[in-house]
Specification:
The chain is mainly alpha-helical. The protein contains 12 helices and 2 strands. The protein folds into 2 domains: 118 residues, Peroxidase, domain 1, CATH 1.10.520.10; 115 residues, Peroxidase, domain 2. The protein is globular and about 55 Å long.
């Protein structure tokens, strides 16, 4: 569940800022973000946010926004899986709409090259270092076979140093026609620097993961730094999470603090 809550926060902030828009259900007036291709059958943890919000509303009605709940849940999930903690900046407002089209256009896909990843991140004001640092969240994640099918068929993203044993293990795991089977993105269930070690050995699960160690010399140097210095990874991850969590969402009087995270007030 930790990976799911962290992913929810990412996918919220990359679409019009951190405004809780990813939590909204579809209505008669808009198609929300839950059914956008990057999110459909992928995002989980909505019921956890619902439960937290319900408890908060019972003691402090309309005080803590759903966007703030997401940010706090993501931070606590990281800490409870062995990662660092940081001070979450509060005061976000919840959006009163959501956009399937914006989510489709804004969120990087699993087959993204480094250039595409960088463009997605720069579009919201984040840097190449943020790309590599925040990708470390995949150390506690899982992915469906359908999202790394190109790794299975040809080892995309691995370059000449592709790990054939790893690719064969993925082929065996995903041999069933049911591509909803999942694989872990790292060998452990704790947030640490193992993800980066895996990249250097050609064991990045998603093509966009392996691309960080195989397509661009600058990103590979950052990967190597995190392999050698886990404290540096933690510090950079914390800083990147604060920057991402500060992405401007709802401004002024255009937002609200929802009573129910699935619907506007």
């Amino acid at each position: 569940m930790a990976a799911s809550l962290l992913r929810l926060h990412f996918h919220d902030c990359f679409v019009n800022g951190c405004d809780g828009s990813v939590l909204l259900d579809d209505t008669a007036t808009f198609q929300g973000e839950k059914t956008a291709p990057p999110n459909l059958n992928s995002l989980r943890g909505f019921e956890v946010i619902d439960a937290i919000k319900s408890d908060l509303e019972s003691v402090c009605p309309e005080t803590v926004s759903c966007a703030d709940v997401l940010a706090i849940a993501a931070r606590d999930s990281v800490f409870l899986t062995g990662g660092p903690s940081w001070e979450v900046q509060m005061g976000r407002k919840d959006g009163v709409s959501a956009s399937k089209a914006a989510a489709t256009a804004s969120l990087p896909g699993p087959n993204s090259t480094v250039a595409v990843l960088l463009a997605n991140f720069q579009n919201v004001g984040l840097s190449l270092n943020d790309v590599v640092a925040l990708s470390g969240a995949h150390t506690i994640g899982k992915a469906r076979c359908s999202s790394f099918s190109s790794r299975i068929s040809g080892g995309a993203g691995g370059g000449p140093d592709i790990n054939l044993d790893f690719v064969q293990s993925l082929q065996q795991l995903c041999s069933s026609p049911d591509l909803s089977t999942t694989a872990t993105t790292a060998a452990v269930a704790e947030l640490d620097n193992q993800y980066y070690t895996n990249l250097l050995s050609g064991e990045g699960l998603l093509p966009s993961d392996q691309a960080l160690a195989g397509q661009d010399q600058e990103t590979r140097m950052i990967v190597e730094t995190y392999v050698e210095d886990s404290d540096r990874f933690f510090e950079d991850f914390k800083a990147s999470m604060v920057r991402m969590g500060s992405l401007v969402g709802v401004v002024g009087n255009t937002g609200e603090i929802r009573r129910n995270c699935r619907f506007v007030n």
